[in-house]
């Protein structure tokens, strides 16, 4: 009882201290990784559901650490966001991915669309639109080939600065996709008020699509909603031929998942592209 009483006063438990130390260590390591240019981009194909053609790719961040090996975003993005380092890391990823997509477009003669994940912190820095504009100019990627994937929470900000950022991006010709659609806020208000081009159905609804009638109904409803608003609909996490068949029957435009390809480094991903 005495121990418990004591703990009540302690703002900082040893467990919290350990967590803070780990977080600070990660932050220091990420800073160094930025200086040493250790972030790389892996690419995963987006495939046209009807034809099976590769029409684009999603850029996924990886940290190639000399000590830890290949570190996945789940292990560093949260700390990058909390510490604000995400703006610098995101810029590196965006530049690398745009440069690569521009090269692929030149080499294949195809208008492959590039999707890049963007966090709220990044999108709402005052200079974000300028950063995107500069990167597109430097890399020569047509704005129409770039799509930014944001989560629902990002478009729920209803302040005017946020709204302006999205409108300016749309004016540039850059597209906007709502990632993990259906998992966030239940309000669909933003669909009416923001310049959105694509809905990306979360993997959680795709997984059991052949076994769970509710999931199939939800996916069908998202496809109808998207299409009646003139939006393109993408399913993520497609792993089986059965899931693909359902998505085709439901009219989902694009699919992405291990069934077609796992995220891979540029050279490996390039083997999937339609070479002339
Ligand atoms: P996300 O945007 O929802 O990306 C999809 C995740 O699902 C990726 O994990 C991808 O590798 C994985 N995935 C793809 N197909 C399948 C499949 O068929 N089955 C299963 N089980 N998983 C599949 P990853 O690469 O580990 O990325 C995790 C998350 O990290 C992403 O989720 C995204 O939110 C974030 N992220 C990745 N790269 C960036 C980035 O450059 N910037 C920001 N802000 N976030 C990023
Ligand atoms: Ca995404
Ligand atoms: Ca997603
Ligand atoms: Ca997801």
Automatic annotation (TrEMBL):
The keyword Coiled coil applies. The keyword Transmembrane applies. GO terms for biological process: cellular response to nitric oxide. One of its GO terms (molecular function) is cyclic-guanylate-specific phosphodiesterase activity. Keywords: Coiled coil, Membrane, Signal, Transmembrane, Transmembrane helix. Residues 23-276 form the EAL domain. This is Diguanylate cyclase/phosphodiesterase with PAS/PAC sensor(S). It comes from Desulfarculus baarsii (strain ATCC 33931 / DSM 2075 / LMG 7858 / VKM B-1802 / 2st14). The lineage of its organism: Bacteria, Pseudomonadati, Thermodesulfobacteriota, Desulfarculia, Desulfarculales.
């Amino acid at each position: 009882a005495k121990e418990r009483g004591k703990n009540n006063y302690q703002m900082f438990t040893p467990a919290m201290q350990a967590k803070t130390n780990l977080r600070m260590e990660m932050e220091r390591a990420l800073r160094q990784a930025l200086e040493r240019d250790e972030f790389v981009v892996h690419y995963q194909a987006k495939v046209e559901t009807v034809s099976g053609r590769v029409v684009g790719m999603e850029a996924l961040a990886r940290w190639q650490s000399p000590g830890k090996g290949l570190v996945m975003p789940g292990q560093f993005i949260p700390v990058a966001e909390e510490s604000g380092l995400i703006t610098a890391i995101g810029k590196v990823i965006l530049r690398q991915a745009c440069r690569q997509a521009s090269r692929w477009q030149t080499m294949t003669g195809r208008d492959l669309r590039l999707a890049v994940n963007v966090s709220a912190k990044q999108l709402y820095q005052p200079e974000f639109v300028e950063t995107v504009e500069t990167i597109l100019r430097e890399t020569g990627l047509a704005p129409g080939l770039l799509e930014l994937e944001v989560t629902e929470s990002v478009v729920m900000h209803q302040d005017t600065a946020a709204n302006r950022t999205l409108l300016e991006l749309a004016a540039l010709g850059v597209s906007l996709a709502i990632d993990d659609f259906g998992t966030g806020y239940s309000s669909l208000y933003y669909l009416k008020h923001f310049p959105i081009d694509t809905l990306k159905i979360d993997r959680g609804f795709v997984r059991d699509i052949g076994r769970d009638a509710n999931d199939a109904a939800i996916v069908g409803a998202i496809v109808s909603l998207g299409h009646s608003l003139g939006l393109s609909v993408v399913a993520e996490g497609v792993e089986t031929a059965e899931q693909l068949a359902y998505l085709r029957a439901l009219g989902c435009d694009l699919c992405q998942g291990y069934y077609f390809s796992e995220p891979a480094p540029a050279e490996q991903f390039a083997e999937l592209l339609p070479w002339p």
